[in-house]
Each structure stands twice: as structure tokens, then as C-alpha cells.
Design goal:
Layout lengths: L4 H14 L7 H8 L3 H13 L3 E4 L3 E5 L8 H8 L17 H26 L3 H5 L4
Antiparallel strand pairs: 1-2
Helix pairs in contact: 1-3, 1-4, 2-3, 4-5
Length: 135
């Protein structure tokens, strides 16, 4: 199953960036995403802990904690995803089988390189790169 936490969080942050002058409620944000405000609040809590957004109990989200150009997709990914590894290797293989004996040692460095490359690509894209499409 795929996670949409990164996409939803980018949506949330894009709305905040575009409405920087106006506090936003989770209900307003949820209406744009077409989801439940509870999901939005959970993600916003993680974004706040990662120092990506500012909020006020009475007003809602009051803005970004950093400039759009300083927030990368990797920052967002690390803030909201519990399972940060893109791939997992099945365990308990049959070590008497030539594939089962070496599958983990074969895939581990490959998956590590893919993970590193993906994180580098996420780090190269900023929220500003995304929000320019909406202005």
C-alpha cells in the first residue's frame, strides 16, 4: 500500500504558503484536500514538531516557520513518514537455495543506493519549486 502523507503534507504547506497573510483552520485545509480535518491535524502536528509551520491554538496555522525556499521535500518526507525506507527485504529465506542464500546481500546495497538517490532528489526540490505552479 502506498502512503499519501507526503503528497497531502505538500498540499497543506502549499496552501499555507499561498495564504501566508491569513491563518488557516484544519477544516479549510481539509476542504481543499477533500479529506477529514483529523487527518490534516495529525499531519500538521508533525509538521509543527519539525519546525515547518507556525500555529496558534486560537487562530489555526499562522504561516510557515521557514521560507518556502528553505523547506525541501526531504524535510517534509522526514517529518511525516513513519516508514522512511522505500523497500524492505523479505526475511527467513531458505539458505539452502542459491537465491534464498544471497538475496538479502544482493538487494541490500542496491536498495541503499536507490534510497540515497531518492533522498538526494527530494532534498533538491523546495516547497517554492512546487508553489510556483500555483501562482
Amino acid at each position: 500500500m502506498y502512503s499519501s502523507k507526503l503528497s497531502v503534507s505538500i498540499h497543506i504547506l502549499s496552501l499555507i504558503a499561498l495564504k501566508e497573510d491569513h491563518p488557516l483552520t484544519s477544516e479549510y485545509i481539509a476542504s481543499s484536500i477533500n479529506t477529514n480535518p483529523v487527518l490534516v491535524r495529525r499531519l500538521m502536528s508533525r509538521l509543527k514538531r519539525a519546525d515547518l509551520i507556525k500555529s496558534s491554538t486560537k487562530l489555526g496555522v499562522t504561516g510557515l516557520a521557514r521560507a518556502e525556499e528553505e523547506i525541501t521535500l526531504l524535510d517534509i518526507f522526514l517529518a511525516v513518514e513513519d516508514n522512511r525506507e522505500l523497500f524492505d527485504i523479505h526475511s527467513n529465506t531458505n539458505h539452502k537455495c542459491p537465491v534464498g542464500a544471497k538475496i538479502e546481500s544482493t538487494l541490500t546495497p542496491l536498495y541503499g543506493n536507490i534510497q540515497k538517490g531518492t533522498e538526494e532528489k527530494l532534498a533538491a526540490v523546495t516547497l517554492a519549486d512546487i508553489t510556483k505552479e500555483f501562482k
